[in-house]
């Protein structure tokens, strides 16, 4: 099975959205790689795929899925995996990832990334499905931790232990979303640093950064929502620096999906991530 990150060095990239495609092609900004949502390119032609192939000529690519539903009890979608495999063959991405979640049941799609119960039964179920996907695609995939707002009373282990065990037992890699850790830590009251310390260093092949929004709940309480609609928060940058301290320089992606700013703003956020990577690498040397 191919290890997914061999062709991507530690650098910072941006999520390439359709609103920025033309500007990206025209300017070829100095970012290390681009990432797109796989499902947006399942069509076998058209302008989106045309622009992506042009961008791929100058930049390494990460394919990031939102529709695998690896934790669902529905059978894995063979048409979905077939099209994803075709896209991988066509574009030769450095990384292929999806989310440690479920998003469909009984053929009904929730259009959301829903958390799993962290139990031994769920763990065995996810591991078996990850192995099927990796055998089907003939390469290692990465799974990303998601933000969550509710927890299952049935859970018997913390999220970080569940994620680490999925990676260990299945052989998949981890896409560690630092913003999601920060959001979930606030919402559930755990220590974000404890999460980082529990994740095996060798499993982390990509890091995500993004912005969140605060929603008041009354009585001074608030919940954080992973909206990808704002700059990376200062506290998330601090947690990212701690992640670099633990995992070393790792390919890092800045996500921004709603209330999109100018392309230059995303490029600047990626440059900040790159500078933190270089600072950490310099300190280590």
TrEMBL record:
Stored SUPFAM superfamilies: Xylose isomerase-like (SSF51658)
A Pfam family per the record: MbnB_TglH_ChrH
Gene3D superfamilies: Divalent-metal-dependent TIM barrel enzymes
Family that this chain belongs to: Belongs to the UPF0276 family.
UniProt-listed HAMAP family: UPF0276
Name by which UniProt lists this protein: UPF0276 protein Q2T77_18900
Organism: Variovorax ginsengisoli
